[in-house]
Amino acid sequence: QTSVCCSLIRRHTYIPKRILIAAMRLCLFSFTVCQAACLRTIYVEYEDSSQGHFEFGRSVGEAVRDVIRTSWADDAELKSMEEWVESDAGRQIYSDFVANSNESFPLYMKEVEGMAAGAGVSLTRLLVNQLREEFSQWISTSRLQGHCTDAYAVNTTGGVTAIGHNDDWGVYWRNATYFVIASALDSNGAVKFRFGSWVYPGYLPGMQLNWNSHGLIWTVNSLFPKSYRSSGVGTAWVARHMAEASSIDDLIARAADPRVSTAMNYNLGNLNLKQLWNLEADSKHKRAV
Asked: In the prediction, which pLDDT does 68 show?
């Protein structure tokens, strides 16, 4: 069974035209969803302020409370990471990551706080969940390999540009994933930008399949480099920051944030230009496009 997110979104005729067009173009994005005919979709408008970001997170948390609790009930990976951050080895690393991420992106930290409140789970658990990518580098007992694979298809004559994304994180979340489609508002209630994201349970938007109203799309592939830092900004916060990019150069700059603690691979696209790029960025301020 294959589900394409544009087929899901087209059923909702009240979605603003511009984001609808961008979403329908996500013939770019196809993925397998087993035992699920349709994925849950959360539509949120939020004011681009501290309280607005908290309410954004709370709205998402309330909407997927059952999904988060059910999927985490037997999540051995999450439980082992929670135990690790309480140990002598992990306590300081966890504290540094949280402090650095909060200092760099306080509004997104508000979203995590709001999600914890809405879902009725502890804030520590939500924060550990955001940092799975980073903590895997310390607690994994086997050799780490990158996750996810993307394939590009370009036919300049036919005007087709497509990207396919395979999701293969170690935890089988696909039946627990959902879409978040959000509109950021200014203080007068006018829309500043919109974005959509396919989200793992309890994550900030941005870490998987994503698009925004500036015609940008991106996917995220995990990398586990030999060299990484024990402090810095978590990749989940960096990915959330990418949702607000206004151009491909802006998207690249946000993905290659020098404050990030480890490396990641990104597949980037411009729907208007029908162009695709691959980006790798590491924690040593290096990047390659």
From this structure: 94
39 CB-near residues (< 8 Å, 6+ apart): 3, 5, 8, 33, 177, 178, 179, 198
State the Cα–Cα distance between residues 76 and 164, nearest whole angstrom.
Answer: 29
CA dihedral sign, ordered 7, 13, 19, 21? positive
d(CA 146, CA 157): 34
Q: Is the dihedral of CA 223, 227, 230, 234 positive or negative?
A: negative
pLDDT at 275: 85
pLDDT in tens, 175-234: 788 999 999 999 999 999 999 999 999 999 998 889 999 999 998 887 666 666 667 898
What phi and psi, each to the nearest 5 degrees, are found at residue 73?
Answer: -60, -40
Give the CB-side neighbour count of residue 202, counting CA atoms within 13 A.
29
CA distances from 163 to 25, 158, 212 (A): 11, 15, 16
Q: Which residues of the chain have pLDDT under 70?
A: 1-38, 140-148, 168-173, 223-230, 263, 283-285, 287
- For residues 56 and 107, the answer to whether their CB atoms sit within 8 Å is no
pLDDT of residue 33: 37
pLDDT score of 20:
44
The DSSP result for 69-104, as a single string, is HHHHTT-HHHHHHHHHHTSTTTHHHHHHHHHHHHHH
Separation between Cα atoms, residue 177 and residue 32, nearest integer Å = 12
Q: What are phi and psi of 210, to 5 degrees?
A: -145, 155
Count of CB atoms situated within 10 Å of the CB of 219: 25
Half-sphere exposure of 33 toward its Cβ, with a 13 Å CA cutoff? 19
